[in-house]
Amino acid sequence: MTFNGAKIFGEATFNNAIINVYADFKDASFKNAAYFLGTNFINAVNFDNTKFDKNTTFSEARFYNSAHFEGSVFSDNVTFMEAQFEREVNFSNVTFKGIVSFMNARFKGESLSFKDAAFSRANDQENACVKAKKLLDEHGKRDEADYHFFREMEGRRKQNGIYYEYFDYEMLLFCNEEVNSTDLKDFLKYMRYNILEYFVFQVIFGYGVRPWRIWAWWFIFVGIFAFVYWIGKGVNNASGQSLTQPLEYVWFSITVAVTPGFAGFTPVNGIYLFVAGLEAVFGTFMWAAFITTFAKKYMR
Asked: By the 8 A CB rule, do 135 and 114 touch?
């Protein structure tokens, strides 16, 4: 059965249908509501790059073979409540513009992917990725499980920060009016969820599942500290003279970040003593985080 590239303008109803053959809906467009309530797909089904413009339901549908939705776009709400997937399922690069529900959906195959899927609601992202992570962990697919754990934690962070994302923080910074305690608390929560947790835990540390990201950021910050030393001539050699070569500042920055030793160089008194101390603390912490994350990912 093929609807490849078809444009369906009226309501599409497949409720309780039993489809015994390969169902091909690739590149199809459903301009109105689409109903697959209780549909039984006995063979594989392909919804790759399919566009659903209105509400869509796959509630209580049963997929006995593989189900592919890669690149599909759900412009309105879609539900897979109590759907059953017996084999692998692929939602990679799917765009969910409305509410998506997988409540009580059961996945029995060895693969479930939401790689690069876009969710309009953070809680939908978290719930979907929790299901994928659990299934992939059960089948020993650690790298894929780690990816979905990252997306799960990203969705959780967004839920915490969404209530403070659009508050009037400019008023706190630039207005001469008295700031009440509620505005101040909202500002602090905005900084925590949308700045601190995003930049530190997600971007730098990758929620503990991306050790090479920590390694890369370690080198980036070593370079930033080296630039700070170089621009202010903040490091002296053993003779008390300022270093002249940029690579010498890089070398000094690396040695400070790895160990408190200064490789025969010394920071200039004043602010650069503080900068070197800050880098030593930061570098040691980053190394510990890298080793912990590396061990967790590759030795479990």
From this structure: no
| Contacts (Cβ under 8 Å, ≥6 apart) of 130 | 148, 152
Q: Give tens-digit pLDDT for 32-59.
A: 999 999 999 999 999 999 999 999 999 9
Residues in contact with 113: Cβ distance below 8 Å, sequence separation at least 6, in sequence order: 89, 90, 91, 92, 132, 144
Instruction: Tell me the two tokens of residue 125.
Output: 């992202």
Task: Encode pLDDT of 228-270 as tens digits.
Answer: 999 988 888 877 888 888 898 998 898 888 876 666 788 888 8
Q: What is the pTM of this model?
A: 0.80
Question: Cα dist. 297→9, 207, 224 in Å?
Answer: 49, 12, 28
Q: Contact 102/128 with Cβ under 8 angstroms?
A: yes
How high is the mean pLDDT of the chain? Answer: 87
Task: Determine the Cα–Cα distance for residues 31 and 23; give it in Å rounded to an integer.
Answer: 19
Q: For residue 59, what are the β-bridge partners? A: none
Beta carbons of 30 and 11 less than 8 angstroms apart: no
221 pLDDT more than 70 = yes
Candidates 289, 297, 299; CA nearest to 144 is 297
- In the beta sheet, which residues pair with residue 236? 242, 266
User: Packing angle between helix 142-161 and helix 122-138, nearest 10 degrees?
Assistant: 160
Helix, coil or strand: residue 116: coil
The Cα–Cα gap between 97 and 119 comes to 6
